[in-house]
């Protein structure tokens, strides 16, 4: 538009052509959103402190005489904090979605990406990657820390090269990423912080534990397949006695994620924002 | 260009928008007027794909919003002031949105300066006043330098300076050939900003016309007279179709006739006039008159349902 032609109706405006909505852009956007909230830093700090700190305290308070020994209990004790940290990680995963709904920022988000589904994938990818990196490091850090404490006791430490130890540690990392993604998906389905956290703690964490107390045998048969229980085999140094094999454990984690994200995706497409 | 075609949206049994059809053209500011609950926000939400219509279409430049490869450069929307996470800073909120489209940081700073949030850009949005929230919402809408702007009650909460600023801003954007569509409950504000008007009530289209035509078509002109002989003049003016009221002792407000007639009547009876003036009907009057039925209807049905 070089000619300064004045007419009653201005010439049609052409918006800038160099900006495009992209997958890489959505990932960067979710990364920015995640780290620009104070709650992210607080919750992740709590998760880190609990996983290492609780592991260390428990490890140093295991009495020598009651120490059963063996790699299995050495891992169980040292990873006790990781299991608790998974609750923080799950809650933060829920909040990355429900926080957008409770504050209304979801309207801005979905106006920028009106196809919607790509937002869900980007959120899951970014959060899953952050948790994987952070807890990949934390699991091993906690392991070395606690084994150093154990090595001075009757329990004795185990080493990474011992049978099944490395796999169990990677299993803990996989479990926490799985739970993070599961929780984020639940948040996308329920869209409400309190409801999602309640559902996660009640149905995913506690119900499978309580279910074993019920007087029906079939309940005991299905509880290993509950969403919160399927990663359990991966945590074992010796998974031979588990109901699910290592392969089945991975398979069921995949199934539950597909179910959760399938439902979340359908609802995200259908519901008004 | 925004095209709304037979748009209907129901939430359960409640019909928010009912077979609405109109178009918003580029180059002028178009106002969107209607009483609370008339369906303005729902219509705007449907345009940017946040609400899925029960039936009908809402399109922008011939496409459904979700088909655009760069939605933020096609449509900039301010739907509710607080569409922001309260714990995030204004800068980070804009940056996160900018990144989806590869919009550079330079543009983020630019819109922050444009809306006058420079000094608070790093502060968390939770502490923002309504006016600051509005300014941030406007910054979001402008981020992609879009061809179409949709603003739901943009002047809500702005101070007089802010109102004046946005009025000029929107007119300038329209003059660049953009489509500017804004709703407001401040009808006088629309009269000063918009050239074209779309009026709805109860989700139905009531008028789609220019502001001038709307006021002259619906508002009633009123003659204001100041006279020391007001009472006697009122007697002489009385007639079929003419109503005279006296808000003060020496003041008359006459409808149903013209200033010339009032002047002649006074002259014929030798009455002194201190002031004789025609008040054009205001947009408020016109709006009230047009939507009166819709509002009354709704209130009676609600009463009956109880």
Automatic annotation (TrEMBL), chain A:
Claim: Membrane is one of the keywords in the record = yes
**Membrane-spanning parts:** 41-62, 82-103, 124-149, 169-190, 197-218, 250-268
Q: Which UniProt keywords apply?
A: Membrane, Transmembrane, Transmembrane helix
Q: What is this protein called?
A: ABC transporter permease subunit
Origin organism is Glycomyces niveus
UniProtKB/TrEMBL annotation, chain B:
Which domain of life does the UniProt lineage start with? Bacteria
Residue stretches making up the ABC transporter domain: 2-227
Q: Where is the signal peptide?
A: none
Molecular function terms, GO-annotated: ATP binding
Keyword check for Iron: no
UniProt-listed Pfam families: ABC_tran
Extract the InterPro entries matched here. AAA+_ATPase (IPR003593), ABC_transporter-like_ATP-bd (IPR003439), P-loop_NTPase (IPR027417)
Query: Looking at the keywords, is ATP-binding present?
Result: yes
Task: List keywords of the entry alphabetically.
Answer: ATP-binding, Nucleotide-binding, Transport
Q: Which family does it belong to?
A: Belongs to the ABC transporter superfamily.
- Can you name this protein? ABC transporter ATP-binding protein
Species the sequence originates in: Glycomyces niveus
